[in-house]
Structures are given as C-alpha cells and as structure tokens.
Design goal:
The chain is α/β, with parallel strands linked by helices. The protein has two domains: 4-106 and 266-280, Alpha-Beta Complex (Aldehyde Oxidoreductase, domain 3); 109-263, Aldolase class I (TIM Barrel), CATH 3.20.20.70. Helix content is 40%, strand content 21%. The protein has helices at residues 4-14, 20-25, 46-55, 83-117, 134-143, 161-164, 169-179, 192-200, 213-225, 260-263; strands spanning 29-37, 41-42, 59-62, 69-70, 75-82, 122-124, 157-159, 185-189, 205-209, 233-237, 255-257, 270-280. The two termini are 39 Å apart.
Length: 283
C-alpha cells in the first residue's frame, strides 16, 4: 500500500507556496515530457512517480515496470499535461526514483553476490533508513530481490545489545516468551558462547553481530556439535558490504542483513526532458 499522504507531503516540502519560477516565466501550457534513465540497474519508484504527477494534474504513462532492469537512455515515463504541474513534480519524482532505484540496484547486485558465496542465504535490509522514507526504502529492497526485515519496533521481538546491558540473555528470552508464545524471538549475540546460551534458552533466531567469518564458522560448528543448529535461524550483520561479503563464503547462515543498502545508497541517475508544448491555455 503506497502512502499517498506521505507523497503529498514531499510535494508540499518542495513547494510550500507553489513554484515561483514557473509561475513567473512559463505560460499556462499543456506539454509533454519524458523521464530518461542515465544508469544501468533496477528501476523502482514508478508507481510513486505516477501518483506524484497525478497530484499535480499530470498523466504519467509507465514504459517500464518497477523491478525491471533498465539501461542508459531508456525512456521510463511518458508524461503529458500542464507544464506547470510537470515542473512542480519534477524534482520530487527524480529524487524518489533515484533513491529507490539506487537501493534496488544495490540490493540486486548484493543478492547475486550472497547467493554465489553463501548458497541459500538471502540479503535483507535493516531499520537504518532515512526518517520518513522507510516504506520506500524497504519497498526498494524488495524490488531488488531482498528481504525487508522488520519495518518497525512493533513488528517483532529482537533482543539487542542495549537490552542485554539491562537484562541477561536467559532472562530476556524467558520474559519475551512469557509475553507471547507465537512470536519469533530473535536475539543479538557477539560471541559463540553467547550464541550457545541463547540457543539453549530457546531463542528462535540468532543475530550474529559484528562477528568476523572465523567466529561465525566457529559458532555454526558449535551449534551443530550440540545439535542446536537445526533449532535456530541464523542471521549475520554488522558492517557487511559487497567488499567483505566474500570472506563469509560457506559459513552456513540463513540471512545477511546490511544497513549499507539504505544508509550508503548511490543515487540512480534519471533526468526529465521537456519535449513540446501541446497548446497554450488562454485565460
């Protein structure tokens, strides 16, 4: 479900009192324009772009679909309507499509890398998203083939280091289980020994946080030796990027979560090109 009110807010942020330049120098004309890709990768944000243009009284026709692989020079949207509306939505559309497509492209490439070095494992995003953009960042991760992971603190029980600074591993798991027997309980651990403690205490999933490849392999081997590996879902996280993911080859985990996908996004290049005026509206 797309957040229409959020998209309207983006437009209001960019033009709280209208587009002063366009209103001053451009006649009220109907025209056409095109959104053109400048990079190669996965396109995302098309559905949002269509809504943003529609909010400005402009029709945008998609020539590619969200999740498609696109190339430089490819036209993504055919746009027609009042040029004042086209120019009002232009920057907001390009900014959102650029960010979302950058995230989707990075996710697609990272996912392919993960599959090659850790067969069966998936790439996932995190909550390290820009405030106000989480829905769109998570959607982009999914369009790139990744797992969105939890959207909010309300979605799942994940016991992290600051929780464990206040409550011990076994006590934390017991309290979480007492609240709900139906929710998955995931806990963050930083050593093989803590992983063993958490698995023995009944955690459903272990997040191996900031462990190097040797520590991850040691943890997996320890869990297997005590017949606990089959009981837990294993996630690794903490500074994992395409540059170092190869060192975890064959480590036997289920999920790689990486904040890099959203906090270090490289914007995807799009441009909007005005084509022609269709008619001048005479008042």
């Amino acid at each position: 479900m797309i957040h229409h009110e959020t998209l309207r807010g983006f437009l209001a942020e960019d033009a709280p009192f209208g587009d002063q330049t366009t209103q001053a120098v451009v006649p009220m004309t109907d025209g056409r324009a095109a959104v053109i890709a400048g990079d190669t990768g996965v396109v995302a944000g098309i559905a949002e772009a269509i809504i943003l243009f529609s909010e400005c009284g402009v029709e945008a026709r998609a020539l590619a679909g969200d999740g498609d692989w696109i190339d430089p020079g490819q036209q993504i949207l055919d746009i027609s309507g009042p040029v004042h509306g086209i120019l009002l939505a232009e920057r907001t559309v390009l900014n959102l499509m650029g960010r979302m497509s950058g995230i989707a492209t990075a996710t697609k490439r990272f996912s392919s890398l993960i599959e090659s070095v850790m067969p069966g494992a998936r790439i996932a995003g995190t909550r390290k998203t820009a405030p106000g953009l989480r829905f769109f960042d998570k959607k982009a991760v999914m369009l790139g083939g990744g797992d969105p992971h939890r959207y909010t603190l309300s979605d799942a029980i994940m016991i992290k280091d600051n929780h464990l600074a206040l409550v011990g591993i076994e006590e934390a798991i017991a309290k979480a289980r007492a609240v709900s027997r139906f929710r998955v309980i995931e806990i963050e651990v930083e050593t093989p020994e803590d992983a063993m403690t958490a698995a023995s205490a009944g955690a459903d999933a272990l997040l191996l946080d900031n462990m190097n490849a040797d520590s991850v392999k040691e943890t997996v081997a320890l869990l297997e030796a005590h017949d606990l590996r089959k009981n837990v879902f294993l996630e690794i996280s903490g500074g994992i990027t395409p540059a170092n993911a190869g060192s975890y080859e064959g480590c036997g985990i289920d999920l790689v979560s990486s904040g890099w996908l959203t906090h270090s996004v490289k914007n995807f290049d799009f441009s909007l090109e005005m084509r022609m005026a269709l008619r001048v509206i005479k008042l």
